[in-house]
Specification:
Radius of gyration: 15 Å
Number of helices: 4
Shape: globular
Structural class: mainly alpha
Largest sheet: none
Order of helices and strands: HHHH
Number of domains: 1
Amino acid sequence: MCDIFYAGNIFLTLALAACFAVAVAAVTGVPWPLLLLAYSPGGITEMTLLSLSLGYDAAFVATHHVIRISCLVLCVPWLFRLTATSRT
């Protein structure tokens, strides 16, 4: 049962990353595969090495991952507090 949950979570986050990548690529002109690497969940090191091997800008990918992780660290505790107070 947990395997289905994990597979669904991975599919959802990759689909969300792909949607954002296509939308931002349409607006900015940045190649969508580069944006997909920048928005995909995963480690900074792994995605940066993958971007290097594909010939993309590693600094761009690493910067987006640092920003994504920083936003998660700052927003998730606030969201947990918000949902915890609304349940009681």
